[in-house]
Every structure is written in C-alpha cells, then in structure tokens.
Amino acid sequence: MLKVLSLNKTNFSAAPPAQPARKVSDTSNPADKNPVSKTGERLKLAKAAFLAGLGFGVKMLAEIFDSEFMVEHLEKRGRKIANKNYKNASKHKREWMTVLSTLGLAGIFVGGCAFLYTLFKTPKIMYEGKVNAFTKGRDMDIYIKGNTIEKNLLTQMNDKAKNADDGEKQKLKEQYMKMQMAKNQLPAFMK
Predict the structure, then answer these.
(1) Which of 9, 80, 84, 191 has a CA positioned 20 to 30 A from the CA of residue 125?
(2) Which pLDDT score, from 0 to 100, does residue 26 have?
C-alpha cells in the first residue's frame, strides 16, 4: 500500500541547524576576549609562504638567466612592448620604457612563481593555521582567566584593607607579596 508522507515539517535546507546564541555576561570586558583567530593565523602563514615564494621566484629567475640567451630574449620582448606602445616617443623615452617593460616581465615571472608556491602550500597553511590558533587560543584563554582571577583577588584584598586593623593589614601585605611572586606569566608565543 502506498503511504503519503507529510512534507510540511521537513526541512530541505543545506544549511546546518541554527545554534542557540551564547550568553554574554553584562560585566564582560572587551580586553577579556581572546585576540587569537584562525583567520589571523592563516593570514600570517600565507604572508610568510608568499614571501618565501618571492624568494623562490628570484632564485628561479637567476637560474634561468645564467645563460645570455634568456637575458637577450627578455630584453627583446621588453623592446617589442615599448616600441608597440610608444611609437611616436623619443628614442630616450623608448629606451626607458624598454628597461621598465623588461623589469615588468621579470616581476610578472617572480610574482607568478610566488603565487604558485603559495597555492601549493595552501593545504599546509590551512592545517597549521587551525593548529596554531588552537594552541595560542588555549594559552591566551588561560592567561586571560588568570588575570581575571588575580584582579578579583586584588579587589577583595583592597576592600578588606579599607576596614582592617594593623594586624590584618600586615597579613594582607604578606598575601599581596605572595601574589606578586606568583604573578600570571605571559604565554610563550607573546614573548
């Protein structure tokens, strides 16, 4: 027997189900938020990979230009571009445009090598960005929570010191010195 299904309650969306919003306390300080993000870590790694790619491109350009043939070929291309675009210019200006066109062609080669190098490094960048963000984020969370606890303890000690006699003030002073000796240290990546 054929069964009719009710489609009114079925969700055909490809989006994941909505997550309930996190509760943020009203006393949260913007300085207490973790500044480490996956995007920032990935951006640092991508920038480093692109700079390494530029170095790789310059090295490849130097290897290719070992022979005089490639230098002459690149200069010929630069001269062709300059003569085509600056037909009515003076000879001096065309020579400058030849040099600039040649340098532009070399720059395009180096930039292309850097782009390809970065493109091949992308999976590694994505993975290492997640790992770095996780470890740095965890260290930063511990540091922020330690600072919050320390701030609360110092506030409590200050409130007690306002209404304390000499003996209690001496005891609070000793506790304060102990807290200063056990001061919260910066995470290793921030040093």
Answers:
(1) 191
(2) 43
Distance CA(7)–CA(5), nearest Å, equals: 6
- State residue 122 phi and psi, 5-degree precision: -55, -45
- Are residues 42 and 118 in contact, defined by beta-carbon separation less than 8 angstroms? no
How many other C-beta atoms are found inside a 10 Å radius of the C-beta of residue 38? Answer: 15
Strand, helix or coil at 27?
A: coil
How many H helices and E strands in the chain?
Answer: 4, 0
- Position 105 scores a pLDDT of 86
The token pair that represents 13 in the structure block: 């969306």
d(CA 67, CA 124): 35
Going from the first residue of the chain to its last (191 residues), give the mean pLDDT of each consecutive group of 10, the final group possibly shorter: 52 54 52 76 86 87 76 83 83 86 87 88 86 85 83 84 82 81 67 57
DSSP-derived secondary structure for 108-166:
HHHHHHHHHHHHHHHHHHHHHHHHHHHHHHHHHHHHHHHHHHHHHHHHHHHHHHHT--H
